[in-house]
Every structure is written in structure tokens, then in C-alpha cells.
Amino acid sequence: MQTVRQIATEIVAREGGFVDDPDDPGGATKYGVTIHTMRRLGLDLSGDGAINGADVRMLSKSHAIDIFVQHYFEHPRLSLLPQVLHSTVFDMYVNAGRQAVKILQRLLREMGFGVAADGVVGPKTARACQNAADPDPVALRDAYGVARRNFYFRLADHRPASRKYARSRAGGKGGWIRRAEEFVSPTYHLSDAEFQRRVAGWD
Prior knowledge:
It is a single chain. This protein is mainly alpha-helical. 57% of the residues lie in helices and 2% in strands. It is built from eleven helices and two strands, in the order αββαααααααααα. A two-stranded antiparallel ribbon has the order 1-2. A hairpin with a 2-residue loop joins strand 1 and strand 2. Helix 5 (83-96) packs across helix 6 and helix 6 (99-110) crosses helix 8. The longest helix is centred in the C-terminal third of the chain and has 22 residues, at 137-158.
């Protein structure tokens, strides 16, 4: 069983170093920590009174891990979820904030559980997850991973600038899709042909 800090360390490795992609609404980012997050937390690492790209560049891996554990796992109370969901929901929370929980809640609603899709992990969501995970927690994890993958596809459907994150330059699965499928059993990975059919309508 992985610790939360071990999961956060893997997320940092998955996110990579400094990037400032104009097509990414997150802006300047390092190890998955965006400039918006650093401004929200008041992280003026250079001490010059302004939080900008220079501060993002100064962020260390250990500091990024601390931010994720505190603000993306502990604060949103992801620990209330079944252990089998910790890695995938935590990873998605870093990537998409409260949408990670809304995806889970919409999935639970489709399964017949009366929870609100408000992006907040409370007692009702936690209880529904525990019930949905019994008797096959891996099935719940897989269902969440597929729902997460579909969320990425829908984003790319509606925002052409984001398609480069879902489809690689070579035309195969992009980072978003591969990332979602890291937490899904191989049986539910899209084949190359299935992927191509899904993105066939994209320019």
C-alpha cells in the first residue's frame, strides 16, 4: 500500500519540469504546480514581492510534493475515499482540481447513489464510494478511470487547442489519455484502432 507522499512523488515525476504553454490555462507550471496555485498560496520564493514565472522555476520537487499532499489530498479530504481510488483521484485532482471529485460523483449518480456533484468529498460521497467499492473495488477504480478518460475526450472535443494533450503529434494517444489509462486495468485500455475512431472527427 502506497503512502500519500509516495503517490505525490509519482505525480511530480509524471508532471515533469517547468513548462509555460500558451495553450494551457494553468499558465507557467513546474512539477504540476501552476503559477495560479503559487499566487493563491502566496509562495513568493524569490522574496521580491511578486509571484511570477521566476518563482515557479525556483520550486523544488520536495516543495511541490508538500503542496500536493496538503492542498490536493488532505484539504479536499480524499482520504475519506476507498484506498483503491486514492492514486487516481489524487492524480486527477492535481490535474483538474474539484473536477476530479465531480467526475467521481457523477459516476456514483449513474450507479444509483444519491450524491450531489458538487466537487466536495463529504460523508455522503464517502459512504457511496465505500458501498460502490463492495465487493469489487478494482471495478470502481476502472469505472472512474474510464470516466476520467471520457472527460479528457470531451474537453478536447470542445476545445481544439487542447487536442494536443489528448492526441500526440504522431497521432497516437496523448498524455491525457495515457495518464488516465495508467489507473485502468489493461482490459479497458483503448486499442489503437478504437482510439483512432474516437478522434476521427478532430482536425
